[in-house]
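To illustrate the input format used throughout this study, we show a single complete record. The first block contains the structure-token representation of the backbone; no residue identities are included at this stage. The design step must infer an amino acid for every position from geometry alone.
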């Protein structure tokens, strides 16, 4: 499979190149040249384990030797604490697919455990090194660190705003002591961290001589790994209910998780509807209801990993929505970066997309959904999952079963659980154990030159 850019101005690249490239050189995002239709294979796949299914799905998009791909997949899920990897549980009238059984207890592990292994594999083959630089306000940093720790030929530098992330999230990052992990607490805000990162990536001399790489959600491998659980969940629920189609409710910020579902749908998986759920940062749900994608200000919510206004994967969706026309994508995105707004016309059915419906849930709805699910069913939802469940129930049609994606374990967001239930209910041994763990972190001023000098000192010259 070759990869092309949503803006159409690069020559097709291989899977390996797509993995290492991140953003395409023309400013677009990489997508597969075509999306394979697997409708005639669903019957053979429906009883498969997560691992076997991952292999069947990923081999269609990768050009790694099959036995190596299989081995990379197997290694990537050994640290999950549930034998099904992404188990599906029935809670009253809905299904919840738990994506939080990996090392950092959030769904990002599903992709980043695999991406770390793929990076290591490609670097070994090409005898190269990679230095990942990232900025995080929370979940991504710890999942990326857990994906890269202890790997050969690869180091990871993660900046977070000093004393401005939650204690749990900070501890999850700084308690990783491996030699190839560097936590940097920046004396500034998350915005400062991002600005420093952008400046260093724009410093092409530095970027090339230190082989800088990134691990953010535009990497195609992250989407790829997430496609797998849409298949897995659909098969489990079809079997349990004898339904022939399912719906998914997906809490989203960067349009990453739900975009994987959108690809699964195009591959022929029988998904009736994808329900897109946002918190108060609702640029995406406004878009799917009105056709207008317009920047707003980011506000703080109970679900911080969705506090995003520009959804980095949206351009990939736009490519398909605009009939795979790279020139239209380019024109729209260029005009969006100038004006902060873009507009799509509704179809004759009055919808922006007949497969995607969208809504948002604010603080009160999030808290009451957590409380209701605990009181009525004894099931604790984390605040991100609660946003998805709230909107999913509101936009549910009665015909097909609803699968809500649970993106984090509630113990990661125990403050929200306390607010919702008035009690300290959310615990997990991995989170409780953080308390007494030793940590490793360096504090630096919010300056590009300080971070550059720090990296130069830590990276041995070759
Ligand atoms: C990152 C994250 C999300 C949002 O995922 P996107 O891919 O940005 O849509 C939702 N919930 C949790 C817990 C997350 O960490």
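Output of the design step:
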């Amino acid at each position: 499979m070759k990869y092309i850019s949503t803006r159409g101005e690069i020559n097709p690249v291989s899977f390996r190149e797509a993995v290492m490239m991140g953003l395409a050189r023309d400013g677009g995002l990489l997508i597969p040249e075509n999306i394979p239709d697997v409708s005639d294979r669903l019957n053979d796949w429906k009883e498969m384990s997560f691992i076997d299914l991952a292999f069947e799905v990923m081999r269609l998009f990768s050009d790694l030797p099959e036995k190596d791909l299989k081995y990379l997949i197997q290694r990537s899920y050994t640290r999950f604490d549930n034998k099904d990897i992404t188990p599906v549980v029935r809670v009253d009238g809905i299904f919840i697919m738990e994506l939080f059984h990996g090392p950092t207890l959030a769904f990002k592990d599903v992709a980043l455990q695999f991406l770390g292994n793929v990076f290591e594999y490609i670097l070994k083959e090409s005898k190269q090194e990679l230095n990942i630089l990232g900025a995080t306000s929370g979940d991504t940093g710890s999942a990326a660190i857990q994906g890269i720790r202890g790997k050969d030929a690869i180091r990871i530098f993660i900046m977070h705003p000093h004393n401005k992330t939650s204690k749990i999230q900070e501890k999850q990052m700084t308690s990783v002591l491996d030699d190839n992990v560097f936590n940097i607490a920046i004396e500034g805000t998350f915005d400062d961290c991002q600005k420093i990162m952008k400046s260093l990536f724009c410093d092409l001399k530095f970027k090339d001589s230190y082989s800088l790489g990134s691990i953010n959600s535009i990497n195609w491998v992250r989407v790829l790994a997430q496609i797998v659980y849409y298949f897995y969940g659909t098969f489990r629920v079809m079997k349990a209910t004898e339904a022939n189609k399912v719906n998914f409710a997906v809490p989203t910020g960067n349009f990453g998780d739900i975009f994987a579902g959108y690809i699964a749908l195009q591959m022929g998986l029988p998904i009736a509807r994808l329900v897109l759920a946002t918190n108060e940062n609702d640029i995406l749900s406004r878009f799917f209801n009105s056709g207008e994608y317009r920047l707003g200000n980011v506000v703080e919510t109970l679900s911080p990993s969705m506090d995003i206004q520009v959804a980095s994967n949206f351009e990939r969706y736009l490519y398909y929505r605009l009939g795979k026309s790279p020139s239209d994508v380019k024109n729209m995105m260029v005009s969006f970066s100038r004006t902060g707004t873009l507009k799509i016309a509704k179809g004759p059915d009055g919808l922006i997309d007949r497969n995607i419906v969208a809504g948002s849930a604010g603080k009160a709805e999030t808290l009451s959904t957590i409380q209701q699910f605990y009181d009525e069913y004894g099931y604790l939802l984390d605040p991100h999952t609660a946003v998805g469940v709230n909107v999913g129930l509101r936009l549910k049609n009665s015909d097909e079963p609803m699968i809500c994606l649970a993106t984090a374990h509630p113990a990661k967001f125990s403050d929200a659980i306390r607010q919702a239930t008035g009690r300290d209910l959310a615990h997990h041994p991995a989170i409780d154990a953080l308390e007494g763990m030793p940590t490793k972190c360096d504090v630096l001023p919010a300056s590009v030159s300080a971070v550059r000098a720090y990296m130069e000192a830590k990276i041995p010259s070759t």
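Structural context for interpreting the output: The longest strand covers residues 154-161. The two ends are 33 Å apart (CA to CA).
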